[in-house]
Amino acid sequence: MPTHNNNSPHIHKNDQVDASLGYEPTDVKITGILVFIVAMGIFVVVTAVLCYGIGKVFNARMNKEDGPNSKWTQTVDVRQLGNLPSSPALQNKMAEITQSFPTPRVQLDDGNQDVADLHARENILLNNYTWIDQSKGTVRIPIDRAMEIIAQHGLPVAPAAEMQPLMAGDSRPVVTMPLTNGFAPTTYEQDQAAIQAATAVRSEPQGSPGTR
User: Is the pLDDT of residue 42 over 90?
Assistant: First the structure.
């Protein structure tokens, strides 16, 4: 309720507030504020109860499926263990165990060293004489020497295939050479050729009506 009336000395006759007072001469309506605070409190309480109930349902379902907690499922506070001290002997032992793992092992340097080692082994085989089977006397020669031999003597020629005797009623196929010039028209070229042929047929002069 307002604390002043129209006869208040603090308000002029033209209903303008005297700013020299430094405060609002009318009361503040707290009804809306109280309604908002009560609604907010009810909302918080209902939300808390709902979240608590959902959590209880989830925990009950998990306990039913996983069984009760045991010493293997309890959460351990790792801060009580402290920091493990560095042990060079343990690190060397771990390195030895890691090297004894069967291949392929986890890459330690993004594979760069393994690729470099692979190329080095390939270069040794490509550029040097190496044994293939020493008991049989077979040797792998360098690639440059192999290219020279091929340039001098050519590639070995495969033996001609033996012709099998023809069955009754069969005939030996005869192939006319060459089969093709090595170039095949594309679909677009085939379509253009068909259009040109159709145009040529339409453009041929027709016979006179009297001719047969």
Answer: yes
Mean pLDDT of 135-146: 89
- Tokens describing residue 159: 């033996």
Indicate the pLDDT class of residue 17, thresholds 50, 70 and 90.
Answer: low
The two structure tokens encoding residue 61 = 């379902």
Close Cβ partners of 142 (under 8 Å, ≥ 6 residues apart)? 126, 127, 128, 129
Residue 206 one-letter amino acid: Q
Burial class (CB in 10 A: 0-12, 13-18, 19+), 142: middle
* pLDDT above 50 for 96: yes
Instruction: Note the pLDDT of residue 64.
Output: 83
Residue with tokens 């050519």: 154
User: In this structure, what token pair is assigned to residue 64?
Assistant: 């039913």
183, two tokens = 């170039």
Beta carbons of 18 and 12 less than 8 angstroms apart: yes
Looking up tokens 């392929």 gives 104
Q: How many CB atoms lie within 10 A of CB 197?
A: 10
